[in-house]
Structures
1.
Amino acid sequence: AATPGAVARVVHAAFGSARPRLLSDTSLAQMREFQPLTTGWSTGLRYGLGVMDVRFFQVPGVPPELFHFVGHAGQDYGSGAFLHYYNAALDVSIVLATSTAPGMNCSLVDLAGNAQAQIVSACEVWE
């Protein structure tokens, strides 16, 4: 499996400002034709061709472009990458990976808290 650092380098090679990019300008433009989801999971989420347009952890008084990311969270059986995004204002990529899917760590007494593990981890890293 790829390390989070390796995945971050690929994300940056695809979306970052350095040339040549992994993806062409035409491909990136098509991927960034975002439309809000209208039914089902995450109604209102702006979704393009395989990428999400999101704003994380906004803080009043801080420029909003610092919280604007493009990418896609990912999860499979036994691992996940809740943060898997690129920020154009800072020209940085961030990947936060976990080695277990939510709800699979049965050693915790409060299994409901287990489901929030990825979100809590992301908040801890962001701080």
Note: Residues 88 and 127 are 20 Å apart (CA to CA).
2.
Amino acid sequence: MVLFTRSTRSIELTESGRYFFRKATDLLNDFYAIKRSIDTISQGIEARVRICINQLLYTPKHTARLLQVLKKQFPTCQITVTTEVYNGVWDAIINNQANIAIGAPDTLLDGGGIDYTEIGAIRWAFAIAPDHPLAFVPEPIAESQLRLYPNIMVEDTAHTINKKVGWLLHGQESILVPDFNTKCQCQILGEGIGFLPDYMVREAMTQSLLVTRQIHNPRQDSRMLLATQHSATGQVTQWIKKQFAPNGILTGIYQDLLHREN
């Protein structure tokens, strides 16, 4: 096997030599990467962390900012982010599909092995298109009027535990959509009614795309929890828990989505 050819003034790699050089370089890089990972694991930093975010708190901007601060703090940790709806968040952490849940809904399930702490609440606003017929009826709007129009709903993504049903009146038609952005757009187009997170409504109202109305029995705030597996004691998990405390970095990132009691 010839890896290089030699002349009086230079050495030139053959095709086999170039292949050997590339593979040897890859092996060395892998070796150093493994060494760095072993060093960080020995310091209590997880090799991998899986984070499930409630879709109510999932936006590209907030998730990118979350990843930015995590990778700056823990550059060797592999981070995976998924999103679920309602009890789908609990489903993910109970079935070991996630180590950390940001925004687990306040529907605590029986069973040990999970630690949780409150990080704030989602406030809801009943929102409709400015030209929707309900925009012109007296407030608070009666349920008999609300039933005349379909409710745009996001379906719970839980598979192994009971699904949660959002606000829906008895006898009212429902239209199921995959996410809250789609729900918001449907309501902007006047295709239905329902409650939206107030941060979504505020943004749409600045462009005169939605209006809010008062109804009987408005939807109560949804308490959001940070949930972690009890066995997750690594530095990344502990840092996330610490930074969701008052004045923490992650509390600051999500402050425009979550309401916290002073």
Note: The helical segments are 15-42, 60-73, 87-94, 143-146, 180-188, 198-206, 235-243, 249-253.
3.
Amino acid sequence: VSQPTFFIDIDGVLYDGPNLIEGGPEALACLRAHNSGFLLVTNTTRMSS
């Protein structure tokens, strides 16, 4: 049985502007601990600093 892969939006889910959103890093750590695949995606047009 294959593991699911999660597509996780960055802007507004993990970050709000320059600030981390509470629980984001812990959620990624949980996915890693369960060997779940994930890809970080975004549709923002802003350049990273």
Note: Residues 6-39 form one domain.
